[in-house]
Amino acid sequence: MIQNIEKKITGDKLEIRVTCHIKRFAKNPIILLTTDSLIAILNKEHKILEVLEEPSYKVGNLNMKKVNNVGEWVFKLGKKKQSTRGPSKKKTTVNTPKEKPTPSIRSRISNIAKK
User: Fold this and answer.
1) Quick one: pLDDT at residue 66?
2) For the chain, what are the domain ranges?
3) Eight-state DSSP code of residue 114
4) Is the pLDDT of residue 6 over 70?
5) In this structure, are residues 20 and 30 in contact, taking their beta carbons and an 8 Å threshold?
6) How far apart are CA 99 and CA 10, in angstroms?
7) Contacts of residue 63, Cβ cutoff 8 Å, sequence gap at least 6
8) What's the Cα-to-Cα distance from 59 to each of 16, 105, 106, rounded to whole Å?
9) Range from 5-19, 22-36, 53-67, 93-107 carrying the lowest mean pLDDT
10) SS3 at position 1
11) Are 69 and 59 in contact, with CB atoms under 8 Å apart?
12) How far is CA 48 from the centre of its chain?
């Protein structure tokens, strides 16, 4: 699990520092962060053109020699993404007269019994 993502923007560079929780139980999934998965997360807010720096080791939630739980990336940013959504459209509902529900079988039989 990703614990924290720290972002720092300087000019056209985006510096990211990611910290992961260390896996404690066997039922917890193993997560290894790749540059592609991080770009997919960041593309929602920023337009990333290229990767300038990436860690030389694996970043994830394991406690092993070759896997670290902290990693730093540097990306080159493009122009900010503009919202492609236009003005919101409200849905109009047509008021149709509601039909009376048919009475239940119990109420129909009790009406017959009263008559």
Assistant:
1) 87
2) 2-77
3) H
4) yes
5) no
6) 64
7) 22, 23, 69
8) 13, 66, 67
9) 93-107
10) coil
11) yes
12) 18
- What tokens does 95 get? 């008021």
Tokens of 80: 């900010």
Structure tokens given for 54: 């990436």
For residue 79, what are its two tokens?
Answer: 């122009």
Which pair of structure tokens corresponds to residue 59? 């970043």
Nearest of 85, 71, 69 to residue 21 by alpha carbon: 69
- Helix H or strand E encompassing 71: strand 70-77
**From CA 24, how far away is CA 104, in angstroms rounded?**
58
| Amino acid at position 59, single letter | V
Tokens at 108, concatenated: 């129909």
Confidence at residue 33, expressed as pLDDT on a 0 to 100 scale:
87
Tell the residue number behind the tokens 């997919």, with chain if given.
40
∠ CA 5-8-10, nearest 5°, is: 160
Dump pLDDT digits (tens) for 29-58: 888 888 898 888 888 888 888 899 999 988
Following DSSP, what letter does each residue of 8-67 receive, concatenated?
Answer: EEETTEEEEEEEEPPP-STTSPP-EE-HHHHHHHHTTT--EEEEEE--SSEEES--SSSE
For residues 21, 22, 28 and 29, what is the CA-based torsion angle, rounded to 10 degrees?
A: 80
